[in-house]
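In this section we walk through a basic example: taking a raw amino acid sequence and producing a predicted 3D structure, encoded as discrete structure tokens. The instruction is simple. Fold the sequence below.
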Amino acid sequence: MTLKNVKKKLFIYLILLIGLFFSSVSCKKFKGFSNDNLNFSLDTVVFDTVFTTIGSATKQFKIYNPSNKSVKIESIELMGGENSPFKINIDGLTGTSMSDIVLEAKDSLFAFVMVTLKVNNATNPMVIEDSIRFRTNGKDQYIQLAVWGQDMYYHFTNFDKGIYDFNNDVTWPNDKPHLVYGAAIVDSAKTLTIQQDTKVYLHKNAYLFVYKGKLDIQGTKDHEVEFRGDRLESDFNELSGQYYGIYFHEAKTSTINYTNIYNGTAGVHVYSEESSNPGYTVTITNSKIYNHSSYGIWIYAGAKVKAENCLIAKNGAHAVFVLGGGKFNFNYCHILGYGTQANSTPALAIRNYYDENNTTVVRYLQEGVLRNCVLYGNQATEIAFDTLNPNNDPALISLDFKNCLIKRSSIGTDNFYNSGIIWNQEPLFVDFALNDFHFYSSSPLNNSGLVNTVNTDLDGNNRSVSTPDIGCYEY
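The resulting token sequence is shown next.
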């Protein structure tokens, strides 16, 4: 066989193979796209209040193809375009418009939406709306987007970069919320006044730092001041540890009245004292301090705190932690456990020493007074002591408890448990799971208190002039 004949046969085989390929492909005819349209898990994506310049949490919805055939999404478009405060991500694709996306039969895609708002210099909340258009088989379908926005006053401190937000001898306006990044500082010998109805939102790890200055929070009944984290979506309503808290460092005499402080790490942290103070470092009245990841009130290194008509509950470690001496005087207070974290510990913990530079520092607990207080929770014991007295100094620790309901695994026999102590009786709260710590008339708290100068309860109700109730509420 000549070379010419071999080439001729190879050419014929090649033509036959090409023909077989196209023949096999033609047998697998494309069945076409479905004429159906899309289904969605939501028709509207709604964001709770979002602060201007602060991004929201990401919301999501699903896009479904209900057909037995693939469907071709001709276009997806964020109608507000580049000027929209919303951002979208469709199954990993980002942008304001996308096209020719094939969704297989009976399959679905995830869509994600987030929003960041610009400052509008307005005191009232604003509503921003947009939509996402899905065009399939010539039909337009829309997912509506809506967000409540709010401007605020900003307080930003970055210690590492030398940026400080000082709030010295000023009164914060209450027409818009205040947002704290890093810290808002009250400097030495200066005063910050916070009016009634002021809302203070704090970013992750942020705190109000009173450094040798004075804080005067002037909440009133029905016009409380509020401290909470800056994420206002419902998922964050009961999440602790969103910010640090209010930190007093050797502060001048300060006051907190009718203030709700919740969802932080340590609600009120009082470190040491200003030696010139005539009385308590901080006086807290008619306030609720709850759902902090560590402590409700932390009294540290000789600080002095007085509290009346306060509810301190559901904190991760202790409701009140006294560490390293000082003074505390609590009257008509709910000091409660019920922490939701696995490491929950007794509601009240007292320790008169701490370790510093490998040295144990023992300090005087000059005053430890509980009057008309309820110490209760899920633990077998809701009061704990860890004290040292190496020199057997009788004045080192001074405690005085009267007319309190206390939960303890064994009844206390120390001489500071004085008259009117009620041991281990259920206080009969209305619903502690729902944070309703009022009590029923059959509660042992009813009519078991000691008369003193506090004439109203946390709700503003008059207390009995002869047989008041134990705790922050009067039945």
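Looking at the output, two observations stand out. Residues 3-27 form the longest helix (25 residues). The chain has two domains: 39-149, 152-439. In the next section we compare this with other chains.
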